[in-house]
Amino acid sequence: MKILITGGAGFIGSALIRYFINNSNHQVINVDRLSIGSCLDALNDVINDTRYFFEQVDICDYESTRVIFEKHKPDAVMHLAAESHVDRSIEGPLSFVKVNVLGTANLLEVARAYYNKLPELKKNIFRFHHISTDEVYGDLGSHDLAFTEHNAYEPSSPYSASKASSDHLVRSWHRTFGLPVLITNCSNNYGMYQNSEKLIPCMIKNALLGKPLPIYGDGLQIRDWLFVDDHVRALQLVLESGRIGETYNIGGNSELKNIDVVNTLCFTLDRLVNKKPRNINSFRELITFVTDRLGHDRRYAVNSDKIKNELQWQPLETFEGGVEKTVAWYLANMKWLLASDIDESELSLSTQVDVKCNHAVIDAALPYLDNVSFTSDAEKSVVQNNK
């Protein structure tokens, strides 16, 4: 199968491509405009594979996107290209509307025109899989049941509203035009290669540099955490075996308060890093509470029974195990974590970090690798091989 993946240089997209290349016979066409959040380095392990192709194209450009479809003739589309940071959506919502709403509409129209010209046999194979977020449902009270696929949408931020809009567009192209679509809504992802504007890599980065670990409000906001490798396994199952026109929630069964997430990271770093910055005894000393985000949702949680019952999927990674692997990977890839190439004017001020790190900062942080202790020889080997 030829799979066209939009946003394939992003965090989840690159994990999905690595998974397909390493665990299937599929060909993959990565379509990415290479904006903030994109990182082709995350695909270094697969770029020389003959089944991998890269096209630097903006999905908002109809003609360029059409040419890519005609050139590669995909059997399926997996649409992950999106602006995805809530803070930036508050500071500049129109770019989210452009990419997430208009970009999705543009891609749907290209896909529809392409699909309509396919022979019947190819039409029976073709799928348009739209990857979305649990944030479209809004937030929950502390005692509310987790969201199912039947819950109404109540998005709170410009980001979640733009993703809700894109979900509605995908459904309408199915009902009105007969485009064979699938939709998945996932909870918070984490893992290797995630951009340092996101909570977990941001906290790891700040901790290693001895900077404050900013926690919004009281830190009691709850999120369900999903290890990215579990997510991409689910995406493959939905693409290959999901029912056309259906939506599947994908959660990690790991509801945690933000403060507990940061405490877990600090505990893991305390154990792995012997020599700590600023003469602190524990990374928890860096935790700092800051003014809460505008319209901050209190709790997200999704019910994943549908995908579990229909496709026999469930997450394999516990949060503690996933964090252990994630922290070890970032310690092994310190230069990747610190050398973020993001324009500071585009990053949320509320993260309170300097994202551009010069070589002096990187070199200052690297010695911490020599003061890391490991719980297994395998973990130690990963770090030593990547230093």
Tell me what you see in this structure.
This protein has a domain at 2-188 and 227-255: NAD(P)-binding Rossmann-like Domain (Rossmann fold, 3-Layer(aba) Sandwich). It is 42% helix and 14% strand. The relative contact order is 0.13. The two termini are 37 Å apart. The protein has helices at residues 11-23, 62-72, 86-91, 93-116, 120-125, 158-177, 199-208, 228-241, 258-272, 305-311, 319-332, 334-338, 359-365, 377-386; strands at residues 2-6, 27-31, 52-55, 76-79, 127-133, 181-186, 188-190, 213-216, 222-227, 247-250, 255-257, 287-290. It has a 7-stranded parallel β-sheet with strand order 3-2-1-4-5-6-10, sandwiched between helices. It has 387 residues and is α/β, with parallel strands linked by helices. The longest helix has 24 residues, at 93-116. The chain contains 14 helices and 12 strands. Strand 5, helix 6 (158-177) and strand 6 form a beta-alpha-beta unit. Residues 341-387 have low confidence and may be disordered. Helix 7 (199-208) crosses helix 9 (258-272) and helix 9 (258-272) packs across helix 11 (319-332).
Which strands sit side by side, in order, in the main sheet?
3-2-1-4-5-6-10
Tally of helical segments: 14
Q: What is the CATH T-level topology of one domain?
A: Rossmann fold
Helix content: 40-55%
Q: Note the beta-strand portion.
A: 5-15%
Q: Point out poorly predicted stretches.
A: 341-387
